[in-house]
Amino acid sequence: MARFYCPLPLVSGQVVDLPPTAARHVQVLRMQPGHMLTLFNGEGGEFSAEVQHMGRSDVRVVVGEHRDVECEASVQVHLAVGMPANERMDWLVEKATELGVHRITPLMTERSVVRLAGERAEKKQAHWQAVAASASEQCGRNRVPIIDAPERFDAWLARQTPQAEVVHGVLSLHASTQPLNALRDGVAVWPKAWVLLNGPEGGLTDTEDAAARAKGFAALSLGERVLRAETAALGALALLTLA
Fold first, then answer.
1. Is the same domain home to 91 and 37?
2. Apex CA 240: angle with CA 239 and CA 243, to 5°?
3. N or C: which end of the chain has fewer CB within 10 A?
4. Is the per-residue pLDDT at 91 higher than 90?
5. What's the CATH code of the domain at 32?
6. Residue 142 is part of which domain span?
């Protein structure tokens, strides 16, 4: 059954007009009154719904029963990434959502190609949040990950305070790293919350890497091969959320 993100208060039995994005998708699918669909608003679970009215630009549905179903990862991962160039950030947000990421913070590091500020940054944030919502529709998630506004690496790092219940790790290209999969094999109880930092193309600089370690971030690696920035972030995320 087709699923749509509807960020509105939903109550069984109520009649609601779908938000523009969801309404447009319903129209593209050529649904008609009487057709059934699934709605979720990001607050947990999902609702069945029946199309009541199809207009030229509006779609009205009757909200049905609530189903208390979830498919969230058992590990909550906050991914902080140096923004990759071109369309790779869109791809990263989409795939990270499918893999169960809880939050993504796009960072501008010394080697970042992409620089965003002001209205341009706001538009990119809104775009990436929409990508995450669409990916949640597709993969069956009922909670949409948070996509933060892009910010400078140093400002973000200054606010980080490692806590006992949250593991802070940095994917490092430098020496003295610990393989992430070996770390997992070496603990009896796997932590349920992570902040995972990864650099852009070319990785973090020596100064940035050292600053993260000084803040208490564990230096981690994914093996001998050199991976693209977005591949490394997703590979580490998969090890944390799918194992």
1. no
2. 65
3. N
4. yes
5. 2.40.240.20
6. 76-241
What is the total count of domains within the chain?
2
DSSP-H helix ranges across the chain: 20-28, 88-99, 118-139, 153-158, 180-185, 206-214, 229-241
What is the model's pLDDT at position 174? 81
What crossing angle do the helices spanning 118-139 and 88-99 adopt, rounded to 10°? 40
133 band by pLDDT with thresholds 50, 70 and 90: very high
* Residues 177 and 115 occupy one common structural domain: yes
What is the rounded CA–CA span in Å between residue 243 and residue 238? 7
Of 9-18, 137-146, 170-179, 181-190, least confident by mean pLDDT is 181-190
Structure tokens at 42: 């990001």
Separation of alpha carbons 168 and 62, rounded Å: 44
The mean per-residue pLDDT over the stretch 86-111 comes to 96
Share of the chain above pLDDT 70, in %: 97
38 forms bridges with which residues in the sheet?
A: 3, 48
**Rounded Cα distance, 95 and 88, in Å:** 10
pLDDT at 212 > cutoff 90? yes
